[in-house]
Design brief:
By secondary structure, the protein is mainly alpha-helical. The chain has ten helices and no strands. Helix 3 runs antiparallel to helix 4 and helix 8 packs parallel to helix 10. The relative contact order is 0.06.
């Protein structure tokens, strides 16, 4: 497949122009800030997920467009303030992708575990010292998934369940636990947050113990 050329995306260029004009001529768009748009960014991301699960291309095209608008909006705000622009954003992610895929853009071999290698490269680039570094403020369930995935990929010496389970059983099991928690007067989301916090403390303790062992 041929790589895309700039002149093959006239609608993208039109959208960039539309966004610039909205920032200039629309009072609402002109007064927005990065912080004021956070709620919209979260909502649009969730709607993309919904469209993917819906499986209808027109719906996904629409929601991806709304999410793309958020990216352009934030880039235009920064450009208006003379900080950075969309080209800087594109340049940064393109450089990052090339650097993290030497098996594609250089002479490197394909790693045996692509996910673990990706995490290791990010860890080295950003100077991370813990499996928990860089995990964003996700909701409780999403954060638990990220913490567990990181813990495994970075080989933190912590025992975690590995018994296989189907997607159907996973969903049904989670719903059953939520229903049982609700019937018991418990906040299931808070319970997950507490459990994730305890898991994170266990990860830190395991990393510290591992570091101590390495210095002996």
């Amino acid at each position: 497949m041929a790589e895309p050329m700039a002149d093959q995306h006239p609608e993208l260029m039109r959208l960039i122009g539309v966004m610039a004009r909205l920032r200039r001529d629309c009072p609402w768009d002109a007064e927005q800030t990065h912080r004021s748009l956070v709620t919209y960014l979260i909502e649009e991301t969730a709607e993309v997920v919904e469209a993917i699960e819906d499986g209808e291309d027109p719906h996904l095209v629409e929601e991806l467009g709304d999410l793309l608008l958020q990216v352009l909006f934030h880039a235009q705000i920064a450009a208006d303030e003379g900080r950075f622009d969309l080209e800087d954003v594109a340049h940064g992610i393109a450089d990052k992708l090339v650097a993290r895929h030497p098996h594609v853009f250089a002479s490197g071999e394909v790693p045996g575990d692509l996910d673990a290698t990706w995490e290791a490269r990010k860890r080295a680039e950003k100077g991370r010292t813990s499996a928990l570094d860089g995990i964003p403020p996700l909701n409780a369930l999403a954060r638990s998934m990220k913490v567990i995935r990181r813990t495994r990929k970075l080989a933190v010496p912590l025992e975690l369940p590995r018994q296989p389970i189907s997607a159907e059983a996973t969903g049904a099991g989670i719903l059953e636990l939520v229903a049982r928690a609700e019937a018991s007067g418990l906040d299931a989301d808070q319970a997950v947050r507490d459990a994730v916090r305890a898991l994170e403390q266990a990860v830190v303790a395991a990393e510290q113990a591992q570091g101590s062992d390495a210095t002996l």
